[in-house]
Specification:
The protein is α/β, with parallel strands linked by helices. About 45% of the residues lie in helices and about 15% in strands. The protein has 20 helices and 15 strands. The strands form 4 sheets. Strands 3-4-14-9-10-13 form a 6-stranded mixed β-sheet. A hairpin with a 2-residue loop joins strand 3 and strand 4.
Length: about 475
Amino acid sequence: MKYISTRGNVEAKGFIDTVLMGLADDGGLMIPSEIPVISAATLEEWRSLTYQELFLKIFSYYTNDEIPYEDLKEMVYTSYANFRAPEVTPVHPINDSLYVLELFHGPTFAFKDVALQFMGELYSYISKKQNKIIHILGATSGDTGAAAIQGVRGKEGIKICILHPHGKVSKVQELQMTTVDDSNVLNLSVKGNFDDCQKVIKDLFADLDFKSKYHLRAINSINFVRILAQTVYYFYAYLQVEGSADKKINISVPSGNFGNIFSGYLAKKMGLPINKLIIATNENNILERFVNTGEYKPGGFTSTYSPSMDIQVASNFERYLYYLIGEDTEKLSSYMSALQTDGKITIEGETLQQVQSDFAALGVKNELCLDTISKYQKDHGYLLDPHTACGIAAYEAFNGPDELGITFATAHPAKFDEAITLIDIKQEFPDEIEALFLMPQHQTVVDHNKDEIVQLLKFFYESN
């Protein structure tokens, strides 16, 4: 298996080189040169596998044996040893037609743990094998930062800097990042929104001299390993649901940066017979507008009760666009240039019909989000976080009478108590989250100024 760039100007790479490259050197995103297809018979054989066993089966198609099997196995089992559920991502039935895949049983109570606990182990492994320091640089709308920091804090040979939008993440998200006092962790709280943070990251990765000098590595979903690790739980959820052998299965996914939903698109291309992939967004509904009209155009930023999806520029959209237009790298490059110059991309005709065949999408308003939380607490005794509530609302909008729905619960509701308290629900915090409020914080507040951020990074990377 080789990996290539969506823009076609990077020499094909192996698995480990792809991990280390993160954002492709031509500004594109790395993807496999071909996607393996899993047969129906093999899928049936996988139905009885544990999460860890399934992970190893799927990754075996992509790693080219660059990592010895026993080493990979040790990384996988270590990654999930500290999850609070033995299944890693348990499936919870709500009613006869709805299941919730709980992705919040990792150390930071969010779905990002599932991929980033493994990526932390993987980066540590590569650093030791190559005897090279790794500087991880990422932006977060809330959950990625905490999960990434947790995955690598205290690890020798690794430093991590995370940018988050100042005052635009939940208090628990902020505390999970900024109460970490390990010397290899730097938190920068940027006066701006997530898109501002993400742009700085992309600009720095596009500066090949800076990237090379400081051994920059990506932890965001621009790194294909993030996408692949998330693909595992699509397979796991589908194979765990009773009736998946003879009923159509829809999967509804809260998604702001298009990474989580693209993982489902990859799973479907690999042969997982998902019926509908449903994108749930909030009032920052660029993805809903794209699916419904064919216009991909970042609009005005809106703060919502589901802040992890408060995103206008979805970085993984480029990967989907590549496949949508027939893997034409020149056409893809022209589209991305148009996005920079004209501020939008427009898809029409049969291509738009393909988009609408691939996805359904709903931008959930704040009021509907809160109403959904109230409804499911009252009717089912199940408390949703606001992102999961958006996913449930989208499931209700698109699930057919003879179909089963799986909605991803992407975070524990304790991470977003600001929304929960608005509907007079009093929840009990897990002990790990309660303890955060008693701990001192460690962060540097900065203006949205690339030069200032670069100076702080240089000092951090060059210090012992």
